[in-house]
Structure prediction request, 400 residues.
Amino acid sequence: MAPISLETEDHSRDAAFNKVMHGKSANERAGFMAMLKKDPNAQKAAIDEYFKHWDNKSADTETQEVREVGYWMPYICVRLLELMALGIGAKSRICEFDKTVYYNLATDLYEYGWGASFHFCRFAYGDRFYPAIARHEHYLAHMMGLREGMKVLDVGCGVGGPAREIAKFAGVNIVGLNNNDYQIERATRYSGKEGLSKQVTYTKGDFMQMSFPANSFDAVYAIEATVHAPSLKGVYSQIYRVLKPGGVFGVYEWLLTEKYDNDNPRHREIRLGIEQGDGISNMVKISEGLAAIKAAGFDLEFHEDLADRPDPVPWYYPLAGDFKMMGSLWDIPTIFRMTKIGRGLANSFVGALEYLSLAPKGTQRTATSLALAADCLVAGGREKLFTPMYLMVARKPRSS
Prediction:
């Protein structure tokens, strides 16, 4: 694979695009309402450029060369579409890791369907959905040994659901790193609403080229975020640099299991469905993830695929929309939204809103892509090809 070259960040340009596309929608209380307040031209540019990469990519025709190009293609279009939306000519070379496009399209749908914590979790018997999500965050904090007053970095913080929960649970001070202006606006609004504005803050930045000084944080964690990196070794190396000597890094990583066979068309179809629907360049196997964290310089203290534990309810059950596994009647609205009927109704409703020009064009296509990813995530979980919760806890040597 060719060496990774990253474009110099331009936060003012990103902010200008955010203003064009999202306007004041970050202030909307509900994700669904925020989704209706986008600029239609900017939304269309984002959708056309994002899906251009995937339109001619199929499991039947994918080669190893095509797969390696996949490390870059979702990111090459990012700056181009931002300049298009701003009405600026774009002829310069674009070569950068950036998942901004995907989350500009998907954030509101994520919040509508899942809440403010964009990750999976384990379920015990009788568990309700949101308490189980919170416990998954607590478990990571526990395994990392987070303590009152520590300065902690959340890499790829989304709209800050896990950061706010872990701050309340462990009493730590958290900086959320995010490359998406819209998500930062949403996260900042939520922190203020919960009275956490001083304890949980957010900063704009690319986790492949962090601007923090070396040795800045007592601990760093990432929850299902670093899978978006074009190189796990690259992002883990950045985390290593900003950690203090002796500092701890904990991550829930999305990885393919060793059972995954790229020569199997069915396996490739599942992987590609996940990658397209979730804005991922190219997932790697568990063995490659373990090699990456060691190559970054860490001492690996613990690792386990939590999805492989014999839980009574599998991690993917909400996506499967299986009411038989539901732990509480209070979860009916959440689970129903994820059933094929619920997703179909939502998709048709969004399509109707598009037809009436009440929702930006392409919103339905984004929802359809997320639904495909949901089906592939369930298939990957059932066939033990994929895990969203490979836990690794590692430490930067004190002598470094």
Remarks:
- The beta strands are 151-155, 173-178, 200-204, 217-223, 243-256, 299-305, 386-395.
- The two ends are 29 Å apart (CA to CA).
- Residues 71-98 have pLDDT under 50 and may be disordered.
- The first strand starts at residue 151 and ends at 155.
